[in-house]
Amino acid sequence: MRSAGRHFLQIPGPTNVPDRVLRAMDRPTIDHRSAEFADLAHRVFEGLKEVVGCSGPAVIYPSSGSGAWEAALVNTLSPGDEVLVYETGHFAKQWSEIASRLGLLPILIPGDWRSGADAQAIAENLAADGERSIKAVCVVHNETSTGCVTSVPDIRRAIDATGHPALLMVDTISSLGSMPYSADEWQVDVTIGGSQKGLMLPPGLSFNAVSEKALSASKHAALPKSYWSWEEMIAINAKGFFPYTPATNMLYGLAEALDMLNEEGLPNVFARHGRHAGATRHAVEAWGLEVQCNNLGDFSNTVTAVRMPEGHSADAFRKIVLDRFDMSLGNGLSKLADKVFRIGHLGDFNDLMLAGTLAGVEMGLALANVPHRPGGVQTALTALVNESA
Amino acid sequence: MRSAGRHFLQIPGPTNVPDRVLRAMDRPTIDHRSAEFADLAHRVFEGLKEVVGCSGPAVIYPSSGSGAWEAALVNTLSPGDEVLVYETGHFAKQWSEIASRLGLLPILIPGDWRSGADAQAIAENLAADGERSIKAVCVVHNETSTGCVTSVPDIRRAIDATGHPALLMVDTISSLGSMPYSADEWQVDVTIGGSQKGLMLPPGLSFNAVSEKALSASKHAALPKSYWSWEEMIAINAKGFFPYTPATNMLYGLAEALDMLNEEGLPNVFARHGRHAGATRHAVEAWGLEVQCNNLGDFSNTVTAVRMPEGHSADAFRKIVLDRFDMSLGNGLSKLADKVFRIGHLGDFNDLMLAGTLAGVEMGLALANVPHRPGGVQTALTALVNESA
Amino acid sequence: MRSAGRHFLQIPGPTNVPDRVLRAMDRPTIDHRSAEFADLAHRVFEGLKEVVGCSGPAVIYPSSGSGAWEAALVNTLSPGDEVLVYETGHFAKQWSEIASRLGLLPILIPGDWRSGADAQAIAENLAADGERSIKAVCVVHNETSTGCVTSVPDIRRAIDATGHPALLMVDTISSLGSMPYSADEWQVDVTIGGSQKGLMLPPGLSFNAVSEKALSASKHAALPKSYWSWEEMIAINAKGFFPYTPATNMLYGLAEALDMLNEEGLPNVFARHGRHAGATRHAVEAWGLEVQCNNLGDFSNTVTAVRMPEGHSADAFRKIVLDRFDMSLGNGLSKLADKVFRIGHLGDFNDLMLAGTLAGVEMGLALANVPHRPGGVQTALTALVNESA
Amino acid sequence: MRSAGRHFLQIPGPTNVPDRVLRAMDRPTIDHRSAEFADLAHRVFEGLKEVVGCSGPAVIYPSSGSGAWEAALVNTLSPGDEVLVYETGHFAKQWSEIASRLGLLPILIPGDWRSGADAQAIAENLAADGERSIKAVCVVHNETSTGCVTSVPDIRRAIDATGHPALLMVDTISSLGSMPYSADEWQVDVTIGGSQKGLMLPPGLSFNAVSEKALSASKHAALPKSYWSWEEMIAINAKGFFPYTPATNMLYGLAEALDMLNEEGLPNVFARHGRHAGATRHAVEAWGLEVQCNNLGDFSNTVTAVRMPEGHSADAFRKIVLDRFDMSLGNGLSKLADKVFRIGHLGDFNDLMLAGTLAGVEMGLALANVPHRPGGVQTALTALVNESA
Predict the structure, then answer these.
(1) What is the pLDDT along chain D (389 residues), one digit of tens a residue?
(2) Which of A93, B18, D105, D233 lies 20 to 30 A from A143 at CA?
(3) Is CATH 3.40.640.10 correct for B19-262?
(4) Domain ranges in chain D?
């Protein structure tokens, strides 16, 4: 049976793609070697660099976000290099596994998946690395699996304090375009991004933003690479072209999405995400449930992972919400499987969509017989009314 | 500044057009004299007749709904004919004014705009019409300006009881496809419909469904007509064509919308509208506000008109809701201007969209300082959970 | 079996709707009583008036073009009024029949369907009308059924020479936006237009552009009217709204189409249509076939009707072209049925589309064994190359 | 100034994306971990395997076609492995360069870029490889830079004749879905494909189809890999999911495109491409120009590269065609730069689009003063009429 009305896609990405972006993509593909294409390319590079806050080159791959992880590594590192990864959650762990598959030696600093990366722990590891074997520090800005944010400036300061020359690589896949970020100001060497979250596109594009230091490192990086290679890419990009056929229609969408972010104004976009995250946490608290992130300052503005009371299945709950209210919520990943559900509140999203989302959660809790106090939605509404728009 | 997320179009029509319908319309126009077109035409006539519940011909005009009002009159009546109209609200009154402009003599039975048409009053008027000057009885099934429904079977019975031969014409513009209706079973002579409400299309198409009796009357109807004339239209429609260029892309959308209604199943569609109307009234009651319709049995399943407390402006409230929450609510019309606001809960709509809608109303009431009790949304959620989907 | 590639819709309207217009229409319907809507409405009225070349009001109906014919008549005339119509072809005749159905007395000046209207004949009829019973002169600017153009300035001069006060009404359905036209300069009292030809929209909108003189006439016009009534329409339009629900998504398309015409520049648009018509006639001549229009100065820039050699069926030929090359050509209407086929070369059209169109005709002639000389396409290409773009 | 009408995108890919595919992609992204997604995934894998003619797994990457080249290599080979590549043209050479960058040792058999791969030369190289150092033979089925086809069965037989165990890898990027191909029948170990040619999608997806033998090889392949790794991909694909976020909207398009190919019927699709290629060569011959492919049996059915007469610039010619006729033609690549132009006649294409394309070429030749005989279009039309559809 057909479900009436719009699906609520409240996983933490892909997000609800706005009509304007879909319609912009719904156009005939053009010659990727034409002047018209070059104009488009220049426009998206320009816009993307503003969102990333970088003055150096940005690279756009036709790939998922994990491609951009790989790209960051293969362009800067050599077989056997050590990389220091803080285990903020599932995605940090995945990144470290990818490093391992590529012939690098990841050092995974264990975390409890309930906070951002611990700058102190990173500093200690670097300080202990007298031989400077560690070539890169990898942190996930916003850990999508847990809803915990890492303070990148803190990491930067921690690295600087040790005087360690390792590159700093930051995964911003679920924060870019939703939370303040500045590659230049924070001196991030490689920023990794994707299209399908705050940038409001379907999945299919990923990004690297590259510092001078990372570019230098790439001259001597010995890992084999071709598709991901920055060198030819950056040289050809400068003219508005790509070394291989780009995903033209996705670039149409990206240009439109960047326009939309500018029309709203990035500070407004960030404030909106903050309001929605705050209201969501108020709701969770009102329900008497626990947020996965237990470090106050690390709460994510884009995704809230909610812990299920002992003895209750998050996946059974999510199934009820999907079947009954046509809303997709995020599942718990690896060790959090069935233990948390995740509410995505990012991208092209507004107060009434959030109200509908929280209503679906609250009604789902009731139908799934999950112990909770009603009233979370009402609490969120009060928060939304009281906080200035 | 751009508003993020989707606009909530909660006026009682045009409704939120589903993507499938928009995408179906987003196709090259075809030759309206081709076999491919004839297939399309046969398909939409077939489907439309099922929704109207009629075995006689349905006529589709490229026009707004008011064109279909005019069509019903000019095809069946002659200058100076009397038509009996029950004043359920703004739209009934408008229909009567149109009759007057066309050279007919409308008799408007006054109503207080807070209930459906009074079958007894209609019966009395007909009974008093010894000379059978009244040629048609016109009622609005669902009065969009007030949210009151008229029981068409009651009207039918009242007419039959008097033995009066007047035609029965029913405006279903804001009920068709959302509430049970059967032109055949209820012996309605002309059913008037439009595309932009329960049929989930943009505005631009209107309908007449015509009984045998109405067809007979049309043979002798002396009002001048050309564009609206059924005769040539029905003859040519039978072959899958139109006497003039049809609105082909709107017909694409209609075909898709009819498919969608069938995929959900009309009884399910009707039940869904009933659930949403019920939850909405629960919310209004919880807020301590008054619904415009004050006759229990006449509550509309597609639109709820809410009365503003004395001394408060409905339009000021609606402006706050629009500016702050990007939701359009319906305004009060003519004598209800600024006194009521109307919530449309029809078309392609689901529980979470309703929750978002009611949340916008409740937050708007707070921001506009309209005296009310919080908790309407919460009450509605409870109602939605408890009533089986 | 699916046909590959794009259909060639080379009937003389509806025309190939450009993607930009379809995509503009593929957007959620907005509240037709909102400020956003009023902006849209002002924009389309402004743009439409530029294309029509009128300073007085333009009226937009959700209807097919025949609705605008009816509107022109019912707003300005009274029962029994005489209207003088020159029979340029099928559509002029239809207009006259509509006048008749509405209670007017059309005087149809017979024509041979092979030229534009004869100004001299019109002048003679007016001069003979000592009692000034003729209230309107109706001419079709570009007769879509024959591909013959009427010189409106000639008609204007002929009327003026007689000193007759009749209104001048001009049907521009298949010329507007494709051929030079100026309601003000040519002192046309009512201009009739439609959306689905040079304006590049799907069918569903029609227009009236109204002179001061026509407005004055409308004060005393006694034909009954409501849907088509200018009075309320013009008053409400001034504020950016409509007396009944407008066809919002069609208006989105109209705004986009007007932008496109302006981006190309109307003089360029007109020149393009002229080049294509010229090249088409060169091809027809090269094939040794005859153009229906036999008056050199009256050749249409938007449609070419080609006469079939005696003993050959135009419809059989058209069917072969459709089945084999997926191209729709226009059929012969009423007395030209099966005797001519019509090539539409208007709207969003370019040289290569024309080449494909003429290629389809030439290959179809071969497959249908219609006597002709090959080489028409080649001749057209030479013409296109030689005439400056 | 805006160009009217549709752009003719006659580069040999990306091709003219059909509306149905664009519209299918123009839909909200869904949860890539939902049952609805799994249905979609199963459907596209099934359909893709039919087009490739393979019973083993097909892998779909969010990437351009060059990603699939890389994937074929890194999944099956180890550092220092030799790969034998026949230099059919630019793309074969690029593939060999990629192999080199990845740490493989390509042996490039030189070719003159005017024919398909020489099976005899490949056989000789393999026969001479007593140590079996060559691990893979790489050929491009349809060399997009030259319009020459390689007979894969011939290559297969040549390899088999030597008894050499090297894997056979075939790039079908510009042939898949346009020309007959069967990975199973021809015993191809890795087939490389892309979305933006015969599959009628925008660029952004690439494919590998994998034989049992290639799968076995992958168990011991030592090149580092993660994004491209088949192992996890194939395992997770079996359940309808992906190890990382897939390009969901591209998959919508792929599903639609596969439906379209089936509706037309693959044999009909192939025959259509053959007809169009034949007509194109007839035109080139009639113009007195030379086709780059000089081996009769190797003419491509999807792209025709035409040599410019000495002293004339292909790029100057292409610019005139673009500026004047809004058609994009393919440029000459690397050593063919400015020496050839390439006509793409593949994908969603029909007779009249081809006629328009050839008309644009012929008019461009005239405007660019390229010595040629007029009449190529006319010759092509005759060919199209005479060959059964």
Answers:
(1) 789 999 999 999 999 999 999 999 999 999 999 999 999 999 999 999 999 999 999 999 999 999 999 999 999 999 999 999 999 999 999 999 999 999 999 999 999 999 999 999 999 999 999 999 999 999 999 999 999 999 999 999 999 999 999 999 999 999 999 999 999 999 999 999 999 999 999 999 999 999 999 999 999 999 999 999 999 999 999 999 999 999 999 999 999 999 999 999 999 999 999 999 999 999 999 999 999 999 989 999 999 999 999 999 999 999 999 999 999 999 999 999 999 999 999 999 999 999 999 999 999 999 999 999 999 999 999 999 997 65
(2) D233
(3) yes
(4) 8-15+266-388, 19-262
Q: Which CATH architecture has domain B8-15+266-388?
A: Alpha-Beta Complex (3.90)
Q: At A214, list the tokens.
A: 């990372």
Alpha-carbon distance D199 to nearest alpha carbon in chain B (angstroms)? 20
- CB of D331 within 8 Å of a chain A CB? The answer is yes
Q: Are residues D23 and B19, on separate chains, in Cβ contact within 8 Å?
A: no
Rounded distance, CA B294 to CA A19, Å? 40
Among the listed residues C323, A367, A221, C368, the one whose alpha carbon sits nearest the alpha carbon of residue B387: A367
C-alpha to C-alpha distance for D256 and D199, rounded to whole angstroms: 10
Least Cα distance to B211 among B50, B47, B56 occurs for B56
Token pair for residue C72?
């022109």
Q: Are the Cβ atoms of C359 and D367 closer than 8 angstroms?
A: no
Cβ–Cβ < 8 Å for A143, A89: yes
Q: Which residue has the tokens 């509509």?
A: C98
How close is the nearest chain C Cα to the Cα of A252, in Å? 14
Roughly what angle, to the nearest 10 degrees, separates helices C351-367 and D314-325? Answer: 90
Q: How far apart are CA D188 and CA A63, in angstroms?
A: 26
SS3 assignment, position C109: strand
Q: Chain D partners of C4 at a C-beta cutoff of 8 Å?
A: 264, 269, 272, 348-350
Contact B32 C14 (CB under 8 A): yes
Chains that touch A (3 or more CB pairs under 8 A): B, C, D
Nearest to C359 among D6, D349, D381 (CB): D381
- Quote the tokens at residue C336: 């030209």
User: Facing residues of C168 across strands?
Assistant: C137
Task: Tell me which residue of C169, C177, C112 sits closest to C145, measured CA to CA.
Answer: C112
Work out the minimum CA distance from C265 to partner chain A, whole angstroms: 20
- Interface list for A 23-52 with C (CB within 8 A): 23, 26-28
**Residue the block writes with tokens 């007029």:** D374
- β-pair type (A82-86, A134-140): parallel
Would you tell me how many other CB atoms lie within 10 Å of the CB of residue A72? 31
Pick B70's closest partner by Cβ from C204, C226, C331: C226
Is 0.95 exceeded by the ipTM?
yes
Dist. CA C155–CA C151, nearest whole Å = 7
Beta strands in chain C (DSSP E): 8-10, 58-62, 82-86, 105-109, 134-140, 142-143, 148-149, 167-171, 190-194, 205-210, 290-291, 303-307, 327-331, 340-344
Name the residue facing B70 among C16, C27, C227 (closest C-beta).
C227
Residues of D in contact with A322 (CB under 8 A): 34
CB contact, 8 Å: B352 with chain A?
A: yes
Contacts of A14 in chain D (CB under 8 A): 29, 31-32, 245, 248
Strand partners, C142: C149
In this structure, what are the phi and psi dihedrals at residue C274, rounded to the nearest 5 degrees? -65, -45
Q: Are A190 and A212 in contact (CB under 8 A)?
A: no
pTM: 0.97
Q: E strands along B298-355, which residues?
A: 303-307, 327-331, 340-344
